[in-house]
Amino acid sequence: MIKAVVTDIEGTTSAISFVTEALYPYARKHLPEFVRAHARDPEVQRQLAEIGRIVGKALSVDEAIAQLLAWMDEDRKITPLKTLQGLVWERGFASGELRAHLYADVAPQLKAWKASGIHLYVFSSGSIKAQQLIFAHTPYGDLTPLFSGFFDTTTGPKTEPDSYRTIARVIGEPPHAILFLSDAKRELDAARRAGLRTICLVRQGMAEHGVAHRKARNFHAIDAAIRP
Known about the structure:
Rossmann fold; Transcription Termination Factor Rho, Rna-binding Domain, Chain A, Domain 1; six-stranded parallel β-sheet; 6 strands; acireductone synthase activity; HAD-like_sf
């Protein structure tokens, strides 16, 4: 019996286009000015130091910004980049320039699972702050109270089984009682190797890649698949 659901965001609860056409361009436009303006803030300083540690040398603020933009172009899932993107998006959501996309089937099904006693979690390459911002600014209101926890790359890569084993330990449920939802084969493969149950979301307009996981077109179809 499923006791917990862990969901990805991009391509699973939200359209990929929301990330690629709204969030990423906003971050790329505003990240340089944000980092320069807040370079003395403790959190930004920590992330700048981490960028230097990753590349193996101390960087000026402008050099760090150039590295961040290069990582964005490469679509790298690197923690300091994701953390700083989250801080930039926080400003965008607060100003009303950004508003999250959520598929229409997601909110009612999350509420139904929560009401039935299933615990809900998010595991995304976006920072925890970014995850919370997305679910706090949906067309269906603030959904963050539905979730019992959020996981990001500080837990580990989404393509490594140990990340899912860590999540299971934190949740406190055996892996076979946890369902992971994603549209990405490598993530689903890693979760399955860790013992989690998996369902691949194939949203409208998305191509099926023949992944060896149970497939669902929406969250309502998932509910029918997991009920005892």
